[in-house]
Design a protein that fits this description.
It is built from eight helices and eleven strands. It is an alpha+beta fold and 279 residues long. It has an eleven-stranded mixed beta sheet with strand order 1-2-3-4-5-11-6-10-9-8-7, sandwiched between helices. Helices cover 28% and strands 33% of the residues.
Length: 279
């Protein structure tokens, strides 16, 4: 009834069409183009030879997928889904168990994912299959701060200037998308600015813009004589000047930036669970 094939053997256009169809009724729809999928592949370390497409019947109708990322012995489900008409048929269990077997055979030690906390059926499905909630990720709408920023943002810098020791010193707790590997591998059109006070760098900010929003990827404190909360507040003021809603997504609750944003009056508009399974 069901057959599987590595996504590397399928055309990317067919993969994106399948994913977009499955996720069209989700809380956050996916609308991948070939170009945006390739960008996400680079940033999130998606490996098509570890990703699987599920087919039904002799005609090999594509009905589901597991798009998988990998770093070292850690794997991550970037997206997982089954077409609506094949849900509650056992297809999802068939797919997830074959993913477990394939990754274990290849020597991976853990598998993680993120799922919207409001999607109780999906959360229950993953728990039934051995995943445990490791932490919660919050997505924020940031307050508009109209006062003039006091720090200088005129100097740009390279993403390669961010190293793991910067995160360690600041006691950061990045999720997969904010790990140094994600930032340095990304080919997206992010902006990277130094934040300077009195001719001294105190932080770096990585951010971007869409037609509708301005978004923060991360704010990296590099000088610890200035309070992180002051840096973040000033950065919000700087980005508010672009006149678009300002957001930051999927920020772990155990990361210092999450606490600072809550104290600044930022409002949570979405929560996800980060879940992990030992293979």
């Amino acid at each position: 009834m069901y057959t599987l094939q590595y996504a590397s053997k399928e055309k990317i256009e067919n993969i994106t069409e399948l994913v977009n169809e499955v996720f069209k009724d989700y809380v956050i729809p996916i609308n991948w183009t070939k170009e945006s999928f390739l960008l996400d592949m680079a940033e999130n370390s998606i490996i098509l030879d570890h990703s699987q497409i599920l087919y039904f019947g002799n005609e090999k109708l594509p009905i589901g997928f597991c798009i998988t990322s990998a770093r070292g012995k850690r794997a991550r489900i970037d997206s997982f889904g089954i077409k609506n008409e094949f849900r509650k048929t056992g297809a999802s269990y068939f797919l997830i168990n074959n993913v477990f077997y394939d990754l274990a055979k290849k020597g991976f030690s853990s598998l993680q994912l993120e799922v919207e906390s409001s999607q109780t059926r999906a959360v229950d499905f993953y728990i039934k299959n051995g995943f445990k909630i490791s932490r919660t990720l919050d997505s924020f709408i940031l307050p508009e701060i109209t006062s003039c920023h006091k720090f200088n943002y005129s100097l740009t810098c390279s993403k390669s200037s961010i190293h793991h020791d910067v995160l360690l010193k600041a006691k950061r707790a990045p999720n997969w998308q904010r790990e140094i590997t994600s930032i340095q591998n990304s080919k997206k059109d992010y902006f990277m600015n130094q934040i300077r006070a009195k001719d001294k760098e105190i932080a770096k900010i990585l951010w971007g813009r869409t037609e509708d929003t301005t978004y923060i990827v991360d704010i990296y404190q590099t000088d610890f004589t200035t309070e992180y909360s002051d840096i973040v507040q000033d950065a919000i003021s700087f980005l508010s000047s672009f006149g678009k809603p300002l957001i930051i997504v999927s920020l772990p609750q155990n990361d210092p930036l999450n606490y600072v944003l809550l104290m600044s009056g930022s409002k949570i508009f979405l929560q996800q669970y980060e879940m992990i399974l030992s293979i």
